[in-house]
Amino acid sequence: MKSSARFQRGLAQFSLLILLAFVAWQILHRSPSISSDVYPYLSSLSPALVKQCTEEKRTSSTILWEDLLAIRSTLSESDAQPLLDQLNVQVPFDDLNWAALSTKTIRTVQRHREILEHYTYYQPNRYTFPVIGTTWFEDSFGADREGGKRRHEGTDLFAKEGTLIVSICGGKIEQIGWNRLGGERVGIRGDDGNYYYYAHLQYISSMLVKGKRIEAGEPVGSMGHTGVALTTPDHLHFGIELANGQWINPYPFLAVWQYWGEKRSS
Ligand SMILES: [Zn+2]
C-alpha cells in the first residue's frame, strides 16, 4: 500500500515535469504574434494614395508623415481637411479638435497612425526598390500556380536577363543557392524581422555568404529564369514572409518604393 502511494506520487511529479517541459517548449517555439489588423491595413493603402500624400507633404512641411497618411487613409476628404488644416498650423496630433467625429473613428485613425510608426514599409526612403533599371510588374498575389496546386505568394518583376537586383533592406543572409521552385534564390532576414525571398536569379552575387549581413541597396544577384521559371520570361519572384510564417502581398509596397526611388534619383 505504502509503495503504491509512493509510486503514484512519483508518477504525478513526473507528469508535472513533462507538462512543465512541454509548456516551456511551447513558449520558446511559438511564432511571434502580429496584431491581425496590421498588414490588412498596410496592404489596403493604395499606391495612388501614398503618392498623393507624398506630393501633399512637399507643400506642407510642418505636417508629420504618419499623421497625414493615417488621416488621409482613414477619413473622407471632407472629414480629413479640418484636421489637416490644424496640423498645418502646428497643432499637435494629440491636441486635435476632432469636432463631430465618433470615438470609434478617432480610435481607428489613432490606431492607423500607430501602425505606420511601428511597421516601417511606408516610412519614406527606408526600403530600396529591388530592380535597378526598367521593370514591369503587376499584382498577381494569390493567382493559381501549377494548375491550382499552389498559389502565387509574391510579386513577379520582369526585366532583361542580367538586370541587377539589390536587397530592399539591411539584414542577414538566411538561405542561399538552389531550390526546386526558386532556382537560384536568396532569402534574407530583414532587420524588421520579416523574411525576403528573391528567386529565379541568373547569378547570385559572389559577395553573399550565409549568415553574413547585407545592407539595403547591395547586390543580391542578376535577373534570370531559373527554377520553375525555366520556360517563362526573365523575372524576379519577390516574396515577403512575416515572422509568424504568413506570406503577404508585396505589390503595394513595391509600387511605392519604386515611386520613391524614382523621385530620389530625378
Ligand atoms: Zn512568382
How are the secondary structure elements laid out?
Layout: H1 2-29, H2 38-44, H3 47-59, H4 65-74, H5 77-88, H6 103-118, E1 136-137, E2 144-145, E3 150-151, E4 155-158, E5 164-166, E6 171-179, E7 183-190, E8 195-204, E9 213-214, E10 219-223, E11 235-241, E12 247-248, H7 251-265
Helix pairs in contact: 3-4, 3-7, 4-5, 4-6
The chain binds zinc ion.
Describe the structure.
The chain is of the alpha+beta class and 266 residues long. The protein has 2 domains: 38-118, no CATH class; 136-265, Glucose Permease (Domain IIA), CATH 2.70.70.10. Helices cover 38% and strands 21% of the residues. It is built from 7 helices and 12 strands. The chain has helices at 2-29, 38-44, 47-59, 65-74, 77-88, 103-118, 251-265, and strands spanning 136-137, 144-145, 150-151, 155-158, 164-166, 171-179, 183-190, 195-204, 213-214, 219-223, 235-241, 247-248. Bound molecules: zinc ion (ZN). Residues 152, 154, 156, 237 line the site of zinc ion.
Defining key terms:
single chain, 266 residues, alpha+beta, Glucose Permease (Domain IIA), 2 domains, 10-stranded antiparallel sheet, flat, binds zinc ion
Bound molecules: zinc ion
Sheet with the most strands? 10 strands, antiparallel
Number of domains: 2
Q: Which stretches of 5+ consecutive residues score pLDDT under 50? A: none
Gap between N and C termini: 88 Å
Could you tell me the CATH topology label of the largest domain.
Glucose Permease (Domain IIA)
% residues in beta strands: 15-25%
The percent of residues in helical segments reads 25-40%
What is the ordering of alpha helices and beta strands?
HHHHHHEEEEEEEEEEEEH
Number of helical runs?
A: 7
Q: Quick one: how many beta strands?
A: 12
Query: Could you tell me the mean pLDDT?
Result: 93
Give the CA-based shape: flat
